[in-house]
From TrEMBL, chain A:
Taxonomic source organism: Thecamonas trahens ATCC 50062
GO cellular component, as recorded: endomembrane system
Protein name as annotated: Rab11-1a
Biased composition (Polar residues): 201-226
Keywords: GTP-binding, Lipoprotein, Membrane, Nucleotide-binding, Prenylation
Region Disordered, residue ranges: 179-226
Similarity comment: Belongs to the small GTPase superfamily. Rab family.
From TrEMBL, chain B:
Superkingdom to which the source organism belongs: Eukaryota
Stretches assigned to the Rab-GAP TBC domain: 220-455
The protein's name in its UniProt record: GTPase-activating protein gyp1
Composition-biased stretches (Low complexity): 109-158
Organism: Thecamonas trahens ATCC 50062
Length: 226, 521
């Protein structure tokens, strides 16, 4: 099914969470397919995509789980937090309600993840400046208070999207790999529905089929204080 | 399965219930535009008081207060800032006067009080709002036409100036008129086809043989007959012809009354949450089809979903219900669209892409909406477990699918298991939306012919999912974990035809015969 196999040494699992309709699925599509659809349907349960990046010269594959925002699906989406090493908590800058709920999502992810998790706060729909309800400074302060990084993005305008994912993944790399993290922090794989083990041990080699060039490969180092 | 019930081709026609042949010519004239549909109220808000002319046509008063009311509406609750619009529902074209027995349109003795309550709320709101709002409220509160001439708006058209809610121009309220005539589908059915003759013979019986109809419908229903057949098989329309017209008229009125009551009452936090979620989802429901981008259609779906959700608090509104409602709605809409554009040979795929729906009159849309609501309600009755807390119906079906796959193809089952792919990863949406997301909508409708014909929506569906996996077994066995899930969440079905669907159903039928005892209930 693929014409290009790339060996990856690292596999990171990232979940995207946030209120319904803030643009989680479009962020994912923008990042993994470099596309934006105006016909994106609501996510039922969880959707999956992946992308390979190069971080500090190493191939890293990100498995990204895009979750349904509605409360009734929280039981299923929580399932995916456990093995996650990163999370994008997304709100919509034109919806104060969605920002108000960001704290809930932060707690939710931290509560259900099985390990220390790198969290990035993402204010999406930055193209809707004229309908902005959440000031950048307010979100920045919130992010600092909760010790997470923060970016505003637009999946529509392709602004900061790959930067957001890359920032999160690089920070995971920094913490888990550069710091020599053990590989024993993913022993809950029986419970997690990931298609591949999310163990971080470098020995794990995974065949991936990404045909997209790794334009993020040389992404500059960003300070990520999450 | 002979598959004569084509979705994408063939006749489509009127979709009402019943067999009053005398009405056929009237309806045909209506379709040809020779007569005006029933009195309609322009949807423009705040100007509708003047639209009360022409109310006289078989008009029944709308009681917005108590019929179907699911909750009381204390006047102290916050007033929603939505601009309410009225939607007239002529039940008959002019010249057709059907006497509706009083018993079928109950008028509570205290009919005025809810309106008075509404008016007082509106008056309160208007005091704090601008003068134009204030001017609206008393008119409605005091006018006796609010009872005898229901086309006059029952609720003040306020709220334009209010700023405390994100809602701008909706929900749109319905004003009930007489229901449209019962259509005669066979008049538009291609009777040269033996299969259509069978449908016609079954549907014309004084008491419809539902089991025979199920057997026939299993292999597909002509688009023109789907509204009738689905309404019968879902248990909404009575099988007895002599009861059908009256029952359907009553149910349609009941829906409109309930919807209006709920839309008029001030929203509490529950209603706010439901409406907010519905409004997030409808603009992303089947947007590749032009009809679902139309505001009138979205408003109708909004009323259907909101009304159902508020009346069913155990589940409320859950994402995915929009897909189910849209599928039912389009089934009821297509024949009426064909009538509206006066082309019985119009193809469904083209009708779904109609940008201009102005030919579809309010009476037709009301019929579609009310019937869709009740069929949605009937369907949800049988699958309510899929949407209540913890979604037990979904998980039960996922477990069944896992057992089924293990029985059907152990090799594929173990390949998925070894790849770490659980049923939940890819089939959660299949179970929630009954494959509406996995196929072009007309094909999903054809699939649902069979689901409707099966007595339980949930059960046979699992076997269809199993057959679907097996259809792609070669692709799946070659795929790695990531490829598997990417493939399964975006199946290459865009080019499928009805024949493919029917082959799938055949395989599902075989699987059900072979493995039902292993899979269990």
């Amino acid at each position: 099914m693929s014409d290009e196999d790339v060996a990856c040494r690292y596999l990171f699992r990232v979940v995207i969470v946030g209120d319904s309709g803030v643009g989680k699925s479009n962020l994912l599509t923008r990042f993994t397919s470099a596309a934006f659809s105006h016909d994106t349907k609501s996510t039922i349960g969880v959707d999956f995509s992946d992308k390979t990046l190069t971080v500090q010269g190493e191939k890293v594959k990100a498995q990204i789980w895009d979750t349904a925002g509605q409360e009734r699906y929280r039981g299923i989406t929580q399932h995916y937090y456990r093995g996650a090493t990163g999370a994008l908590v997304v709100y919509d800058i034109s919806s104060a309600d969605s920002f108000d709920n960001a704290e809930f999502w932060l707690k939710e992810v931290r509560k259900h993840s099985s390990q220390e998790i790198v969290i990035l706060l993402v204010g999406n729909k930055s193209d809707l400046e004229e309908r902005r309800e959440v000031e950048t400074a307010e979100a920045q302060a919130f992010a600092e208070e909760h010790q997470v990084s923060f970016l505003e993005t637009s999946a529509l305008d392709n602004n900061n999207v790959s930067e957001a994912f890359t920032m999160c993944i690089e920070e995971i790399y920094r913490r888990k790999v550069a710091a020599g993290a053990s590989s024993s922090d993913s022993d809950d794989d029986d419970d997690t529905p990931a298609p591949a083990k999310s163990k971080l041990e470098p020995s794990q080699t995974i065949k991936v089929t990404s045909t997209a060039p790794d334009e993020q490969a040389q992404a500059q180092e960003k300070q990520c204080k999450c | 399965m002979d598959g004569k019930g084509s979705v994408c081709s063939g006749d489509v026609g009127s979709g009402g219930m019943g067999s009053a042949s005398m009405l056929a010519s009237v309806f045909a004239r209506l379709a040809r535009g020779e007569v005006e549909p029933g009195p309609l109220v322009d949807v423009a808000p705040a100007t509708e008081q003047g639209a009360g002319t022409g109310v006289e046509t078989g008009e029944k008063a709308v009681d917005v207060g108590e019929v179907g009311g699911a909750r009381s509406a204390p006047s102290t609750r916050k007033t929603r800032s939505v601009r309410r619009q009225h939607w007239s529902v002529p039940m008959h074209p002019p010249g057709v006067v059907r006497v509706v027995p009083a018993a079928l349109c109950p008028r509570p003795a205290a009919a005025d009080s809810p309106q008075a309550a509404d008016a007082s709320q509106a008056a309160d709101a208007s005091q704090a709002a601008d003068a134009s709002q204030a001017a609206d409220a008393p008119q409605v509160a005091d006018t006796p036409q609010a009872v005898v001439a229901p086309q006059v708006p029952q609720v003040p058209q306020t709220d334009e100036g209010e700023v405390d809610s994100p809602r701008s121009s909706r929900p749109v309220k319905i004003t009930l008129h007489e229901l449209p005539p019962e259509a005669l589908p066979s008049a538009l059915l291609d009777m040269s086809k033996a299969r259509n003759q069978k449908f016609d013979a079954l549907l014309s019986a004084p008491i419809i043989d539902l089991e025979a109809l199920r057997a026939l419908a299993w292999s597909g229903v002509p688009a023109v007959l789907r509204p009738q057949v689905w309404a019968l098989l879902l248990g909404y329309a009575p099988s007895r012809a002599d009861r059908r017209v009256g029952v359907l008229a009553r149910k349609r009125r009941e829906y409109v009354d309930a919807a209006n009551t709920l839309l008029e009452a001030p929203f509490g936090s529950v209603e706010d949450a439901i409406m907010t979620q519905i409004r997030k989802d409808l603009p992303r429901t089947e947007q590749s089809l032009a009809i679902f981008r139309a505001e009138r259609i979205q408003s109708a779906l909004e009323r259907i979903l909101f009304t159902w959700a508020v009346r069913n608090p155990a589940s409320g509104y859950v994402q995915g219900m929009n897909d189910l409602a849209a599928t039912l709605f389009v089934t009821f809409l297509v024949p009426q669209l064909a009538i509206a554009v006066n082309d019985p040979h119009h193809q469904t795929a083209l009708l779904l892409q109609l940008e201009d729906l102005s030919e579809l009159n309010e009476a037709q849309l009301a019929l579609v909406e009310a019937d869709s609501y009740w069929c949605f309600s009937k369907m949800l009755d049988s699958i309510h477990d899929n949407f209540i807390v913890n979604l037990p119906g979904i998980y039960r079906n996922l477990d069944k699918l896992e057992r089924l796959l293990g029985a059907m193809n152990p090799r594929l089952a173990s390949h998925l298991a070894e790849s770490g792919i659980s049923m939940m990863l890819f089939a959660f949406r299949w179970m929630t939306c009954f494959l509406v997301r996995e196929f072009p909508l007309p094909l999903a409708v054809r699939l649902w012919d069979t689901y409707v014909a099966e007595s339980a929506f949930n059960d046979f569906h699992v076997y269809v999912c199993g057959a679907l996996l097996l259809h792609f077994v070669d692709d799946l066995l070659e795929a790695s974990a990531e490829e598997l899930i990417m493939f399964l969440q975006d199946l290459p079905t865009a080019t499928w035809t009805e024949t493919d669907i029917e082959e799938l159903l055949s395989k599902a039928y075989v699987a059900h015969s072979l493995y039902a005892s292993k899979v269990g209930p």
